[in-house]
Amino acid sequence: MNILKPSKIVLAYSGGLDTSVILKWLQEKYQCEVITFTADIGQGEEVEPARKKAELLGVKKIYVENLEDSFVKDYVFPMFRCNTVYEGMYLLGTSIARPLIAKRQIEIAEKEGADAVAHGATGKGNDQVRFELSYLSQNPDIQVIAPWREWELSSRTKLIQYAEKHQITITKDKRGEAPFSVDANLLHVSAEGKILEDPWIEPQEHIFSRTINPLQAPNEPTEITIEFKKGDPVAINDKYLTPAILLKKLNDLGGRNGIGRIDIVENRFVGMKSRGVYETPGGTILLQARRAIESITLDREQAHLKDEIMPKYAKLIYNGFWFSPEREMMQALIDKSSVNVNGYVRLKLYKGNVIITGRKSKNSLYSEDLVTFEDSNSDYDQSDAKGFIKLNALRLMKNKKND
């Protein structure tokens, strides 16, 4: 049951203009203690300034936590085991981060005896859905406060005026109309809004922060080998790395070779189309490498079944249903299929392209003896194909005779 006036609120706090204004607004409106939670999931900037800013705004209990390893190990890698892509292009960089943040936020709320949580997502986007579905899946009785759906600060100008009134520090690049909105974590960087709202206008180069322009990438390819165990990458060039460090390494390699840029118009869960420009260098490499190792380690019907369920799985994550029973059921199937996905994939990274040059595995189902055009001692008898084809053609011939 929702509480009309909370006694304590845990706020997902980035330290930026929006959440700093939200912090002060919550303090004023509800006249209660606000606890801030800042998650470091590899956004590429220091998170400690958020602690100092929260202190200046009178916050007594401040959580700043590095969750990079959990983000990659418990969320990104399980998602990638299904080769997950939303609407054919989007690798779900923002979508997969929200369940982790929300889950930890609820854990802090329970630890601190808070009866409400708050977020800074707007009323037009998907993140409000992702945060709140995750909150309620973890604690059905928690009160959720979404200031963007409640307050009258409906524009950037009004936010800045409120911040100035309450002496909230505003970074210079936030004055006036911001050119575009950015969200970043270890998996990707997204940019949307403002100068990107017209889908005909080409994104300018300054929008990209994690990848070099493919046209300006090195003229020589970078060759790497990725090792997989049970569907997850564990090593690059025979060097074993933690999940977070491995993804960082792939980001660096991909970024230097102009890999992972996409410009898409996607269908939001809330009912509108949205143009986004995303950079996912490490994830793009990982997706291609995973499909390569699965091509020799998965049975045909296993591989086809995964491809059939993947769009449904991607849609669940995009729409905020990470903690749903159906996603967990699908994850069990996906994880089972990954048991024998072991081995090595060799790739070349070149001017925005990921080029597979080799794959090998002790669990390989590929048989040179079966596929060779030369004489072999395999169990495959080419004459058997005649009956196989005729049986499959039986209904086609019957239909033709009935025309």
Describe this structure in words.
Helix 2 links the parallel strand 2 and strand 3 (62-66). It contains twelve helices and 14 strands. Helices cover 40% and strands 19% of the residues. The protein has a five-stranded parallel beta sheet, sandwiched between helices. It has a five-stranded antiparallel beta sheet with strand order 10-9-8-13-14, covered by helices on one side. Strands 6-7-12-11 form a four-stranded antiparallel beta sheet, with no helix packed on it. By secondary structure, it is of the alpha/beta class. Helix 1 packs across helix 6 (156-165) and helix 4 (97-112) crosses helix 5. The protein starts with 7 loop residues before the first strand and ends with a helix. It folds into two domains: 8-79 and 90-178, HUPs (Rossmann fold, 3-Layer(aba) Sandwich); 183-298 and 340-360, Argininosuccinate synthetase, chain A, domain 2. The longest helix is centred in the last third of the chain and has 20 residues, at 300-319.
